[in-house]
Design a protein that fits this description.
Keywords: DNA-binding, Repressor, Transcription, Transcription regulation
CATH topology of the largest domain: Rossmann fold
Radius of gyration: 25 Å
Largest sheet: 5 strands, parallel
CATH architecture of the largest domain: 3-Layer(aba) Sandwich
Structural class: alpha/beta
Protein name: Transcriptional regulator, LacI family
GO molecular function: DNA-binding transcription factor activity; transcription cis-regulatory region binding
Organism: Actinobacillus ureae ATCC 25976
CATH superfamily of the largest domain: Response regulator
Number of domains: 3
CATH class of the largest domain: Alpha Beta
Distance between the termini: 62 Å
InterPro entries: HTH_LacI, Lambda_DNA-bd_dom_sf, Peripla_BP/Lac1_sug-bd_dom, Peripla_BP_I
Order of helices and strands: HHHHEHEHEEEHEHE
Number of helices: 8
Length: 216
């Protein structure tokens, strides 16, 4: 495997110049950048990520702490969307799937995330729920996906369950249904409560009080 020294030797420049070409290419002339790039391509050189981390080099890497997100089809789409978006901006992502009710598992996941010296963290969950943010991650830039928290004031992106259920209820009414059976399980889930509110807002606004829906 080619090393940084091999690239420098082939390009006819110093090790420092190769390092700048990789990390701060705007500091070099076009001729020098091209010489280094040609050498990298010819040698099929891949930067040593571990070494960069030791030197404290930022890689624009986002860590994803996934609380069982990889266990359901819908939730997997969240992870795929994160990875796709990160790549579009030329960044990297690092995903760890864990189980939030296993404290040891979560602690090990946090340790692994921190060891990668990440730029930011996205915490996601397989079902919309209030979560506890691991204390060791609190100092990092955090965004939540499909979950909320009372621990910190952070951006949280969640599905609009209220509007989704409202749209479905409109469709039921258009098709002439008058005695729906509504299953909201589990009852204490944030999504279940929002969906029930969405249904009731539309159902009763259409003067359907005489047809009492069954809620389970």
């Amino acid at each position: 495997m080619a090393s940084l020294k091999d690239v420098a030797r082939l390009a006819g420049v110093s090790l420092m110049t190769v390092s700048r070409a990789i990390n701060n290419p705007e500091q070099l002339s076009e001729k020098t950048r091209k010489a280094v790039q040609d050498a990298i391509e010819q040698l099929n050189y891949v930067p040593n990520i571990a070494a960069q981390k030791i030197r404290g080099v930022s890689e624009n890497t986002i860590g994803v702490l996934s609380f069982s997100t990889a266990t359901t089809p819908f939730s997997v789409e969240i992870l795929l969307a994160i990875e796709k978006t990160v790549r579009q901006y030329g960044w990297n992502s690092f995903v760890i799937n864990t189980f939030e009710d296993d404290e040891q598992d979560v602690e090990e996941a946090v340790e692994l995330l921190l060891s990668h010296r990440l730029t930011a963290i996205i915490i996601t969950r397989h079902g919309l729920k209030k979560i506890k943010i691991p204390k060791r991650l609190a100092s990092l830039s955090i965004v939540l996906a499909n979950c909320v928290t009372d621990d910190l004031q952070v951006a949280s992106y969640i599905p609009n369950d209220f509007q989704g259920q409202a749209d479905v209820t409109h469709l039921l009414l258009e098709k002439g249904y008058k005695k729906p059976l509504c299953l909201y399980i589990p009852h204490n889930a944030i999504a279940a409560k929002e969906r029930q509110k969405g249904f009731q807002a539309v159902w009763f606004s259409q003067k359907m009080q005489m047809y009492r829906p069954n809620f389970l």
